[in-house]
Amino acid sequence: MLRVVLRCETELPLQNKILILTICAAGIGGTFQYGYNISIINAPASYIQVFMNTTWLERMGVPLESNMVLLLWSFTVSAYPLGGLTGAVAAGPMAIMLGRKMSLLLNNGFVIIAAALSGCSRMAKSFEMIMLSRFFTGVNAGVSMNIQPMYLAESAPKKLRGAVALTSASFTALGLVLGQVVGLRELLGGEESWPFLLASNVVPALIQLTALPWFPESPRYLLIDRGDKESCSLVLAALQKLRGTSDLSAELEEMLAEQAAVKGQRAKNPWELFQNPGLRWQLVSIVVLSSAMQLCGNDSMYFYAAYVFQEAGIPEDKIPYVVIGTGSCELITSVTCVRLSTQISWMPYLSMACIFAYILSFGIGPAGVTGVLPTEVFDQMSRPAAYMICGSLLWFNLFLVGTAFPFIVVMSPTLQRENPSWKSRRSSGKGTSKLRPVEVSIKALRRSKPPHCSRRKEDAIWGNSAVNSAVALCPCRDTKREVRDNILLLGS
User: What is the pTM of this model?
Assistant: First the structure.
């Protein structure tokens, strides 16, 4: 068996190996970061909310109300798509002026800044640093989501162009899964290690900074966008490195024909695409697809996966491992498009299976196609602007859904007040325990009480505000009375 594998590896053409390594070098610091940074924020959610509350108490002497904690957490999560929107707008000019490869390399600077901010946030006692860190992380993801598919599609031979561009979705799914695994409490998802979890995104950035410079720039960018004599020699060198000793005449003729067709033209702006009737249907396609991809709520579910599975009734100690299943589903579909067929009889696990099946269907369709479509339907001069439009819509809709999602989760149990089975499950103590994060909040608030706080002021603080701040970590309003009773027991 080993002999067969070794023989197949030796028979693999050198240029295919270089193309595969180019894909890996671009992907590890590109769309991998998008998926990784979506998933790592879910595991330490309760710890970060406690950190926000205790930090505010140390500053002001009064803990935050429950709605304010939820609002601050929503801002923290939504800073990521806001940064992504900024990065998507900047990606077009960067790709034109700096080139595809250089843009990807410089883009890692945003992640390094973000890692420094999040890693030092607890030491500096500043939750604002976490918000700013998430913004810079989003800028990195917004740039890479647009430029990486362009770079890979333009570097691949024509017959492999679509398949190579589709690997961007595979790296996104791989980042989701790895972020969920690293976020386990046994690794970096614990109460003491969550700053290191948020700063761990610097590792893929350093890997790309080390690996990507060894690989060539996009040949199509060098010939068509730059087009000078120096670029022509670079094109031949890049093609020779990517294709090996194969015949390059056909591919060069195609590139020269496209260069002649766009000669004298400059790269288009996004608004110029809307003014061109010949590109109307291509624009409609990417607008609808990129908007629908985020409005369906799939990526927002990764932000708040723990809340979703709590409300579905999954035991709390199993939720981190169930969350890994969501990312694994997208990884499987992005690579093999396998259909989930498992049926589970218990209702909470049936709900979990339905979520998995939804992610499987999402991975088969929009997750992979959205990033590839602009490469296929726009020419070289229109492609950067098309990616700016596609990426801006994608990130804007992710911001809308990501901001609204936690409030939807908080409000949704009010629709189930009249459901007897749901109430009996709550009253019998089955399903998820809502007291654990409350206990964590109460103990943390007591530990962080300012030393100058008088007894009268302490009693006033613990009269109403502490109850509300503790309830902030429990997304269910129907259990507020039960939570208040438990707080009184804890305080007695």
Answer: 0.68
